[in-house]
Design goal:
The complex is a heterodimer. By secondary structure, chain A is of the alpha/beta class. Chain A folds into 2 domains: 203 residues, P-loop containing nucleotide triphosphate hydrolases (Rossmann fold), CATH 3.40.50; 68 residues, no CATH class. Chain A has 10 helices and 12 strands. Chain A has a 6-stranded mixed sheet, sandwiched between helices. In chain A, a hairpin with a 2-residue loop joins strand 11 and strand 12. In chain A, helix 4 crosses helix 5. Chain A is globular, with a radius of gyration of 19 Å. By secondary structure, chain B is an all-alpha fold. Chain B has one domain. Helix content of chain B is 85%, strand content 0%. In chain B, helix 1 packs across helix 5 and helix 3 packs antiparallel against helix 8. The mean pLDDT of chain B is 94. The chains are: A alpha/beta, B mainly alpha. Chains A and B meet through helix 3 and helix 4 of A and helix 4 of B.
């Protein structure tokens, strides 16, 4: 087990490096009735960094995202998001903070009675002070980013699974949030569509410098993110050349049996001698 | 089926009442807080008010007509057939108008709210709303509660009028009563207390219909089956609350207004 790679932030370090840290979990535990799901989880997400959370089904990956957004409260521990301690904030105060964080849900969670235009515009409409012309411009820009500008007037029910996921990404990105949380963005999609989604995440990371947490159980997606960069001029994702010193700011965090068992880069996880990790990667 | 201990059952029920009370309380206090969703409130008012108009008109008209028809035989025995207008008027305004309208709207809208919000809940749309910085209580519950209260108030007045019209049709066409006689007794028999009672009830009923519908919708679990269960429970609970609260409001206002 690569214990040495696991970071354990404390309150002082989070406060001291508050400007550099987007999200910090400190000794967070949560259980449902007698069933412990997460136990003593600690990690940090630096600004501009992408943290890929891996683990088998039922290890609490999605739960981590819901905790970060304050949609659920941990039994113990503290969670900081953009310098705010969400664990002690009232639900009413959390709404302002959540507007600064994008979230892409596992099943997209688009509002099915609204068109694609209205869905993507929703976060801006909620701000209440954005002129309609500006909203229209930014909706088109966000949909162009995910290459779905032609679906403006369609309803989510008229889109394929992959298209819905891309619309959800557009909705998550339209306010240019500092942090985006992706919950299994490629789950249940075909390989080609999955690559498109991963490319969008890499584009967000390299073009907008967005910090993000990506929950996935697809190892290939995690490694593509860690070994590719987005070429703005070519408008496509390209693999890092051998020996390249380019830092793609992507780190892995692996959960097992309620705990973090690994945190580090793609190269470090591949080099790990831990038996479970070897089996997991194979 | 798994057996549940009496303690757990009691705890579950107390927790449900606490959650309902919290939702109902917030739905009212949100009126004084920003943001206010006026467009959503107007949309709901259209759905609830205008959408329920045909059934309320029909139910009110035929209730008044049946009331006149059923009571005419008894009134005739005492030579008091001329009081048909008074009887229909008092029954409709004090009791049948608000209660029947409440039950109609509960059947139509409480179920609609529970199924709509329940579907949103099970497809994570409520979580998405919270994640996007929107308070579902302000965006979904308050507009429904306000529009149901306001529209049920007016729908009850329409129902009363339609009931009186139905009663008049029967009294004039089948009982041979004079139009002037019917409307004069109907109008003159009503006193301030009757009108207050008839207009207070829809406010309370509207509140129950919307809060119960929203509560069951927002707490729905278990996929499509859970949504179906929430819808049924919403209609049953709202209907029982309307009938039970009707008794207590009547008693309270009779004592309070004398």
């Amino acid at each position: 087990m690569s214990n040495s790679l696991i970071t354990t932030p404390d309150v002082q370090s989070v406060n001291a490096d508050g400007d550099q840290i987007a999200i910090a979990f400190e000794h967070v535990s949560i259980a449902f009735e007698e069933n412990k799901v997460l136990e003593d989880i600690s990690f940090t997400l630096k600004r501009g960094e992408t943290k890929v959370i891996l683990g088998v089904a039922g290890t609490g990956k999605t739960l981590l995202l819901k905790l970060a957004l304050g949609l659920l409260r941990p039994d113990s521990g503290r969670i900081y998001v953009l310098g705010h301690e969400v664990t002690s904030m009232k639900e009413e105060d959390l709404f302002d903070l959540r507007r600064q964080v994008g979230m892409v849900f596992q099943e997209s969670a688009l509002f099915d009675s609204l068109t694609v235009r209205e869905n993507v515009a929703y976060p801006l409409m909620e701000q209440g002070n954005v002129p309609p012309d500006e909203i229209e411009k930014r909706v088109r820009e966000a949909l162009r980013f995910v290459e779905l500008e032609h679906t403006l007037d369609l309803f989510p029910g008229e889109l394929s699974g992959g298209m819905r996921r891309r619309v959800a990404i557009a909705r998550g990105m339209i306010t240019h949030p500092e942090v985006i949380l992706y919950d299994s963005p490629t789950g249940g999609l075909d390989p080609v569509t999955s690559t498109t989604i991963v490319e969008l995440i890499v584009k967000g990371r390299d073009v907008y410098k967005t910090s993000s947490i990506v929950v996935t159980h697809r190892l290939q997606d995690a490694f593509v993110m860690a070994t590719h960069y987005f070429d703005k001029e070519a408008n496509m994702m390209k693999p890092l050349k051998d020996g390249s010193r380019r830092d793609v700011h992507t780190r892995f965090l692996i959960l097992r049996d309620t705990k973090v068992i690994f945190e580090g880069t793609a190269a470090e996880v591949v080099a790990s001698k831990d038996e479970y990790l070897k089996e997991y990667l194979s | 089926m798994e057996l549940i201990s009496p303690t757990d059952f009691a705890k579950e029920k107390v927790l449900a009442i606490q959650d309902y009370a919290s939702l109902a309380g917030h739905s009212l206090t949100n009126v004084f807080k920003h943001p206010r969703y006026l467009a959503d409130t107007l949309q709901q008012a259209d759905l609830i008010g205008v959408g329920s108009l045909p059934i309320v008109i029909l139910a009110g008209f035929f209730t008044g007509a049946a009331l006149a028809l059923n009571t005419s035989a008894t009134l005739e025995k005492f030579g008091s057939i001329s009081l048909t207008g008074q009887l229909v008027s008092l029954s409709m305004v004090r009791e049948l108008g608000p209660v029947l309208t409440g039950l109609m709207v509960a059947g139509r809208n409480s179920s609609g709210m529970a199924s709509e919000l329940g579907s949103m809940k099970v497809t994570e749309q409520i979580d998405a709303m919270r994640a996007l910085g929107t308070d579902p209580s302000k965006k979904l519950t308050t507009p429904r509660v306000i529009s149901t209260i306001v529209m049920l108030f007016f729908l009850s007045i329409i129902s009363d009028l339609m009931g009186l019209t139905g009663g008049f049709c029967v009294a004039w066409a089948l009982l041979g009563l004079d139009a002037n006689q019917y409307w004069t007794t109907a109008y003159q028999s009503l006193v301030f207390q009757d009108v207050i009672m008839g207009l207070t009830k829809p406010i309370v009923f509207g509140f129950f219909i919307a809060t119960v519908g929203c509560y069951y919708g927002l707490t729905a679990t278990g996929g499509t089956q859970g949504v179906g269960r929430a819808t049924t429970q919403a209609v049953v609970t709202a209907s029982v609350l309307i009938i039970a609260s009707d008794f207590f409001i009547t008693r309270f206002l009779m004592v309070a207004l004398g």
